[in-house]
Amino acid sequence: MTDLLSLQRSFAQTILGQAPEEELLRAVKPGDLPPDARLRIHQNNFRESLSSALSGVFPLCEAFVGELFLKQALRHFALACPPNKAALFLYGANFPDFLRTYPAAESVPYLADVALLEWYTHALSNASEEAIFEDYAAAHAAIEEGTGLRLHGNARLLVSSFPVYDLWQVASGQLEPEALDISSRGGQVVLLVLHEGQVFYQSLEGPVADCLMRIEHGEALGLIEADLLKELIDRGAIKPR
């Protein structure tokens, strides 16, 4: 007699695409459909429910590749990376990484970074907003004392080799597609900041972008000019560790 745990494991494997084991087929109660067909219904429901839930998280991706492409990608993702926590709003964090190796997305190499921008937006929108940090003296002291700075809890930094900020503007209707030439436009650094329940996007370059990338990587900063430190704080990007 097969124990319950073995049946549960076999059922989970079947839901994720493996052929059902004989013990599981024998355990399925007879009905209008044969056991393997009844199991396929559960498999399809699993993929469709997860892909439908995630499609609302990645509307910009859909704008570039279409509903059918995104749905199929999410179905494959659901089987390759099933949820490991009973919290659906946490599910989907590794979808951008999945797209980087998804064969069908080879023709749209920027899609993974667009998905990452959307995931950061989703994560910030569902996070508890932290208090604004405005203590310039404390930030300066943290640098001098060597404790350092970190990204603010309300902030995320996206470093892309594609013009992901411009792509966001195209997908959201703020920039005409004809105005963007991906082949000649370089990469972009985008800062996302949650403020009063809304996520704002900032395209960064120069010392501001360089400094934030070093902070995110945990690198030693040395001295930071007062104006630069003030700008980082005013943008809502940093706070002491």
UniProtKB/TrEMBL annotation:
<dbReference type="InterPro" id="IPR044922">
    <property type="entry name" value="DUF2063_N_sf"/>
</dbReference>
<dbReference type="InterPro" id="IPR018640">
    <property type="entry name" value="DUF2063"/>
</dbReference>
<keyword id="KW-0238">DNA-binding</keyword>
<protein>
    <submittedName>
        <fullName>DNA-binding domain-containing protein</fullName>
    </submittedName>
</protein>
<dbReference type="Pfam" id="PF09836">
    <property type="entry name" value="DUF2063"/>
</dbReference>
<feature type="domain" description="Putative DNA-binding">
    <location>
        <begin position="7"/>
        <end position="99"/>
    </location>
</feature>
<dbReference type="GO" id="GO:0003677">
    <property type="term" value="F:DNA binding"/>
</dbReference>
